[in-house]
Specification:
single chain; signal; iron
């Protein structure tokens, strides 16, 4: 009988303790985290980050950096064509990179404009935005 009373007392104390504890704070909803990111950043994370890294540094001898290069900050048409057609066997600013970049022509004109604007304004870059109309013109061969 004493054992039952002791067990009951322990169980009651555990229940009371559990009821007074505050529930753990919930992690933010994924949609709230996603909403805080720029559209181009999301596209970058889904399609570019693996090769060009989170900070745009690339991988030496494999994938070129996206920071501080004329390929990113220079001619928009050339950069749009890289995304649309891919790139292979091209020295970039005097360095050879062995990985081929596949064409990303499956991205919409808006998505390409967003991701290139993101790249051209991040990683220390301060180049002008790429517009959807510029991407449309390059895709159409104009």
């Amino acid at each position: 009988m004493k054992v039952l009373i002791i067990l009951f007392a322990c169980l009651s104390a555990s229940i009371a303790s559990a009821q007074t504890k505050k529930p753990a704070a919930k992690a933010p909803e994924k949609s709230a985290v996603v909403a805080a990111k720029l559209p181009g950043q999301l596209i970058y994370e889904q399609n570019c980050l693996t090769c060009h890294q989170a900070n745009g540094s690339g991988v030496p001898n494999l994938n070129p950096p996206l920071r501080g290069t004329d390929w990113v900050n220079g001619d928009k048409t050339r950069l749009i064509n890289v995304v649309l057609k891919g790139l292979q066997g091209q020295d970039i600013e005097g360095d050879a990179y062995d990985n081929a970049m596949p064409a990303h022509d499956f991205l919409t004109d808006d998505q390409i404009a967003d991701v290139l604007t993101y790249v051209r304004s991040n990683f220390g870059n301060k180049a002008t935005a790429v517009t959807t109309d510029e991407v449309k013109a390059v895709r159409a061969g104009k």
